[in-house]
Write a structure and sequence with these properties.
The chain is an alpha/beta fold. It has two domains: 6-102 and 110-238, Aspartate Aminotransferase, domain 2 (3-Layer(aba) Sandwich), CATH 3.40.640; 244-366, Aspartate Aminotransferase, domain 1. Helices cover 40% and strands 14% of the residues. The chain has helices at residues 6-27, 34-47, 58-68, 86-93, 138-148, 200-209, 231-262, 289-298, 318-321, 327-335, 347-363; strands spanning 51-55, 76-79, 97-100, 123-127, 151-155, 163-164, 167-168, 175-179, 193-197, 214-216, 219-220, 275-276, 282-285, 336-339. It has a seven-stranded mixed beta sheet with strand order 1-9-8-5-4-2-3, with helices on both faces. A three-stranded antiparallel beta sheet has the order 7-6-12, with no helix packed on it. Strand 4 (123-127), helix 5 (138-148) and strand 5 form a beta-alpha-beta unit. The protein is globular.
Length: 368
């Protein structure tokens, strides 16, 4: 059993993806070829924003967003401690300080009720993370951001295709950033990412920054980095975009199969009524998580822990952030477990997999 099965997906798009990649090999424009511009236009249309600027990966997307917003040393960015390391890493690399606030106990996303008390005169932006494919609660976050004149950087690495109040993820921030890493709901065959915005000036800045700050060939008006998405990955994404809507629908069905079998036995994902999740991960919460994971591994069932350690506890950040306690997030690190999930799981496989989980729980492990 595979945690994510990209081979099955490839069988569905084999003709389209092969044709698109062959076209790139024939025209030979491997950097900023025509597929990149086509992808940006189609993704902007899909998300319903003015600008999509593709990037080499999701981390670069966050870094370029921070640079475009002119985040400076000493600035503060409010975010969650319960995320992949890049969330905090890019803030620190910009010279700014990540200011963490705890998460909501049901959604695992940043608890908007705690944001305002974390604001100081140095606060420049709020960076909500849409964990596990579900958008954070952006309406109250937007009220706070407007009141204090803060930018919102939507970390949508896991949520491309999700919706909040009918609005698509990647349209919810001053700048929104996503990742096309192979494990993501919308992914390429390597690294990739994108930034989205309705702000013309920010879009112009990000296009320049991703290409070493160039405004014209060998004319550099600002410092930048190399964050260009290569043309082959754009071709792959264009092929996958053809089936993406159907895959998001399949994810809803498969999540419901899981819910029907696990509800009442473990804590299943809670999706807010106004949200549609892409289920980048199907993550449950249970006691004796580590023991259950080990037992499932012996049965050939892969699982993952997203995430076993808070960002402020990581050695790279530990000296500066080790004293603060985030009780809800810390409890999550001890109890969350992600089960195999992708759009091509069958009901029979889900029933078998959940049966193994329930069998372990009934024989040996208690669940809160």
């Amino acid at each position: 059993m595979k945690f994510i099965d990209l081979h099955q997906q490839y069988q569905v798009i084999v003709e389209s993806v092969n044709a698109r990649m062959k076209a790139v090999l024939e025209h030979g424009q491997y950097i900023m070829g025509p597929e990149v511009a086509e992808l940006e236009e189609r993704l902007a249309h899909y998300v319903q924003v003015k600008h999509c600027i593709t990037m080499s990966n999701g981390t670069a997307a966050l870094q370029v967003a921070l640079m475009a917003l002119d985040i400076q040393p000493g600035d503060e960015i409010i975010t969650t401690p319960f995320s992949f390391f890049a969330t905090a890493e890019t803030i620190v690399l910009s010279g700014a300080k990540p200011v963490f606030v705890d998460i909501h106990p049901r959604t695992y996303n940043i608890d908007h009720r705690l944001i305002e008390r974390a604001i100081t005169p140095r606060t420049r932006a709020i960076m909500p993370v849409n964990l596990y494919g579900q958008c954070a609660d952006f309406d109250p976050i937007r009220v706070i951001a407007n009141q204090y004149r803060l930018a919102i950087i939507e970390d949508a690495a896991q949520s491309f295709g999700a919706t909040y109040q009918g609005l698509l993820s990647c349209s919810l921030g001053t700048i929104s950033c996503t990742s096309f890493f192979p494990s993501k709901p919308f992914s390429c065959y390597g690294d990739g990412g994108a930034c989205f915005t309705n702000d013309d000036a920010l879009a112009h800045a990000m296009r320049s920054i991703r290409n070493h700050g160039q405004e014209g060939r060998y004319h550099h008006t600002r410092l930048g980095i190399n964050a260009r998405l290569d043309t082959l990955q754009a071709a792959v994404l264009l092929a996958k975009l053809e089936i993406f809507k159907e895959e998001v629908e399949h994810r809803q069905i498969i999540a419901q199969w899981y819910n029907e079998n696990l509800d009442g036995h473990v804590i299943i994902p809670y999706i807010e009524p106004h949200n549609v999740s892409t289920y980048a991960q199907y993550t449950i919460q249970l006691d004796e998580r580590d023991a259950v994971q080990t037992a499932l591994q012996t049965k050939g069932i892969p699982t993952a822990i997203h995430y076993p350690k808070l960002l402020n506890q990581q050695p790279a950040l530990h000296p500066a952030y080790s004293t603060t306690i985030y009780p809800v997030a810390e409890l999550a690190t001890e109890r969350v477990l992600s089960l195999p999930f992708h759009p091509y799981l069958t009901k029979e496989v889900v029933i078998k997999l959940t049966g193994e989980v329930l069998g372990l729980l009934s024989r040996k492990y208690a669940v809160a």
